[in-house]
Amino acid sequence: MFKTVLAVLLANPILLAAVDLNREGDLRRLVAQVAENERKNRFREMGYFYRLQNHRIILDRKGREKKRTSSTYEVIPLDDGVYRKLIRRNGEPLSEKEALKQERKAEARLRRQRNLSPAGRAKLKRKHAERRRKETLFWEDALRAFHFHYRGEEVLNGRPVVVVDLLPHEKYRPAEKDLWILDKLKGRVWIDRQDLQLSQVELEFVKPVKIAGGLVARLYKGSTLWVRQEKVRDDVWFPRRFEMIMNGRIFLLKGLNMRMAGEFSDYRRFGTSVRMLPADPPTDSGSVESEE
Q1: Residue 18 lies in a domain
Q2: Rounded CA gap, 173 and 200, in Å?
C-alpha cells in the first residue's frame, strides 16, 4: 500500500509540489523513481532503430580544433546488443561499392541471428537476459553511489525541471566490477518535473579511468560527459545529443585531447521478433514510427 501511495505522489506533478526536496528522504524517493523510469527507457530503447551522427574533434593543447571527422550510422537493435551500419562519412554518402559492403555485413549479422540453432537461440536468450539484469543493477547501484543534493528548479526546453547534484559517496563500492565507472563520477542532473525523467545530465570524472588496464587508453581526472534527453513520444524519453571531452593518453604513449559529440534522431520502434534492416527514416526526426 505504501508503495502505491508513493507512486501516485511521485507521478503527479501537482502533488509533487507538496514534497520537500530539501529533506533527504523525499529527495531520495524522487531520485529512485527517476532511476526506475530511466531503467524502463533503456529497456524500451533495446527495441528501437535510430540514427546516430558522431563527430570526432581533435584539439590542440589550447583546446582549439585541429581536425574534425564524422560518421553517421543506422543503429539496428539485436537481442545481444546493437549493430551500427555506417551510412555516411564526413556528411557525405558512401560510395556505391562501400554502401553495398555495409549492407551485406548488416544482412549477414541479421541472418545469423534469424537462423540460430535451438542451442544458439537459448544462448542468445541468456545474453539478452544478462543485458537486462546489468541495466537494472546499474540503476540500483547508482542510488548507492551518490549523495544527492537539491539545487532548486529551472526551466529547460520550455519545461520545468528539478536540479540535483550527484556527489560521490565515500563508502560506495560497486556491486560488480562492470560498474566501476560509478565510483569515478560526480555530476548534476536536470529532472523533468512533470514526467520525472532525466532531461539533462552533466558528469565529470573525479578519478582517472583506465581502459584495458591502461594499455588501450587512460582518461585523466576532469574529463566530462554531457547528455540531453527529450520526449520522443508520450511515454518514452531517449537521448538526443551528447558531448564528451576526453584528456589522457592512448596506448601508453600518444596524448589524447579530443571532443566527441553526437546527435540521435529518427527513433523507430520495431516490435516483432524478426529483425530487419530499417527503411529510410522519416523526414521528421522527432517522430517515432511503429512497425508492429
Answers
A1: no
A2: 26
* Of 39, 47, 33, residue with least CA distance to 195: 33
Q: What are phi and psi of 141, to 5 degrees?
A: -70, -30
Grid coordinates of 136: 537494472
Number of domains in the chain: 1
Q: What does the alpha-carbon distance between residue 253 and residue 61 come to, in Å, rounded to a whole number?
A: 16
Q: What range defines the domain where residue 174 resides?
A: 28-272
What are the helix and strand counts (H, E) for the chain? 5, 14
pLDDT tens digit string along 16-69?
Answer: 555 788 888 899 999 999 999 999 999 999 999 999 999 999 988 888 889 999
Flag whether 103 is in a domain. yes
For 141-189, what is each residue's pLDDT tens digit?
999 999 999 999 999 999 999 999 999 999 999 999 889 999 999 999 9
pTM for the model stands at: 0.82
- Closest by CA position to 221, among listed 256, 252, 246: 246
Give which of 206, 221, 207, 210 is closest to 252, Cα–Cα.
210
Confirm whether 10 is domain-assigned.
no
Please report, as a single letter, which amino acid is at residue 257. N
Residue 6 lies in a domain: no
Least Cα distance to 206 among 227, 183, 225 occurs for 183
Is residue 197 classed exposed, middle or buried when 0-12, 13-18 and 19+ CB atoms within 10 A define those classes?
buried
